[in-house]
Structures are given as C-alpha cells and as structure tokens.
C-alpha cells in the first residue's frame, strides 16, 4: 500500500463533529434560485436554525456571493430565510461577495466579534471535511456540525467525488489551490 495509500487513508479519516455548537455559526453557502435557497442550502439553513433553537448560539453568519446571472446573493437569501423563521435580525449577518469556500471563510472572518472567536461551520457532511481543513489552515478556531446529505442521484455522486478530489488537492497544495 505504501506511503500514498497510508496518506490517502489519513486524508479520508472521519471528522469529529461537535455536539455543542460555538456561539457563532458560519453557514456556508450553496446555490439559491431567484431568492429562494436551493434544497442543499435549505438543509444547511434549517440545521443552523435547529442549532440556534437549542440555545447558546449568539451570532449566525451566512456566507455566499452572487452567482453568474443571479440577482441575489446566497448570504442575503440565507439571512432572509433565517429571519423569516424567527431568528432576530440583530443576530444574523451575511457575507455577500464570496464565490468559493476559502472566500466564504476569509470574508466571514471579518464578521466575527474577535478574530479568534470559536466558530461552528454548518455545511453538509460531504463538504464538511474540506471546509474544516480550510478553516483550520486559515487559523480559525473551528469545528463543524454537518447536516446529512442523502445521495441518490448521479449529480450527488459527482458532488461527493468532487469534494473528495478537492480535499486531496487542498491537503497537498493548501488553501491557495482552492481559490
């Protein structure tokens, strides 16, 4: 099996997920369609809402810019979604200029109360290992609370495989390869 096999097994080790979220959540964007969250994004937002309702969450940052041809940002759509479900507007912040996970986290860092504030990333379980690795490489005090992603379609399998490849690339070349 050799070094490469051992290293690959190390890359794909399961991540530890938090059972008690940090006071600040960062919800990583996914697509939005004409002002409404995509099903994937909605699952992430609903999971953040569940964590908020459990208590202890004081700040939610929703991250994501405007995609090509879109009129709305993922961050803005997510903020509106959470507010419409009872999260006070003063607790929800949006980052609206990012186009990838590295930018999501770099730009969201400016919305933290302090640069070293502990955060919990909210994403899906396929994206979570790479998102957490990126956050840690950026020096963020991050853990992750992923929402399960049930993959039943070819598109879902492609997403899972893409994330696996990107995780390996990120581990080898670092965050700069993810821009």
Can you offer a commentary on this structure?
- By secondary structure, the protein is α/β, with parallel strands linked by helices.
- It has a single domain, classed as HUPs (Rossmann fold), CATH 3.40.50.620.
- The protein is built from 6 helices and 7 strands; from the N terminus they run αβββαβαβαβαβα.
- The chain has a 5-stranded parallel beta sheet with strand order 5-4-1-6-7.
- β2 and β3 (36-37) form a beta hairpin.
- The longest helix is centred in the last third of the chain and has 20 residues, at 154-173.
- The termini are far apart.
Concise structural overview:
Helices cover 42% and strands 14% of the residues. The protein has six helices and seven strands. A five-stranded parallel beta sheet has the order 5-4-1-6-7. Strands 2-3 form a two-stranded antiparallel ribbon.
Number of domains: 1
Global outline: globular
Q: Low-confidence parts lasting 5 or more residues at pLDDT below 50?
A: 1-12
Derived from helix and strand composition plus strand pairing, the structural class reads alpha/beta
- Give the CATH superfamily: HUPs
Radius of gyration using CA atoms only = 16 Å
What is the beta-strand fraction?
A: 5-15%
**Using DSSP, what is the number of strands?**
7
Can you tell me the CATH topology? Rossmann fold
Please provide the ordered H/E string of secondary-structure elements: HEEEHEHEHEHEH
Distance between the termini: 32 Å
Largest sheet strand order: 5-4-1-6-7
Which CATH C-level class is it?
Alpha Beta
- Biggest sheet overview: 5 strands, parallel
Number of helices: 6
Arithmetic mean pLDDT: 86
CATH architecture: 3-Layer(aba) Sandwich
Helical fraction equals 40-55%
């Amino acid at each position: 099996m050799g070094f490469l096999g051992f290293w690959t097994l190390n890359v794909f080790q399961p991540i530890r997920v938090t059972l008690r979220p940090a006071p600040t959540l960062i919800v990583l964007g996914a697509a939005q369609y004409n002002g409404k969250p995509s099903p994937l994004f909605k699952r992430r937002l609903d999971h953040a809402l569940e964590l908020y309702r459990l208590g202890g969450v004081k700040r939610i940052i929703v991250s994501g810019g405007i995609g090509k041809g879109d009129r709305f940002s993922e961050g803005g759509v997510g903020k509106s979604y959470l507010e419409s479900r009872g999260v006070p507007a003063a607790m929800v912040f949006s980052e609206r200029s990012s186009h990838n996970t590295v930018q999501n986290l770099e730009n969201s860092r400016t919305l933290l109360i302090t640069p070293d504030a502990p955060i919990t990333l909210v994403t899906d379980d396929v994206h979570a290992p790479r998102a957490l690795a990126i956050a840690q490489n950026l020096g963020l005090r991050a853990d992750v609370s992923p929402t399960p992603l049930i993959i039943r379609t070819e598109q879902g399998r492609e997403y899972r495989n893409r994330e696996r490849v990107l995780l390996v690339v990120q581990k080898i070349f670092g965050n700069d390869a993810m821009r």
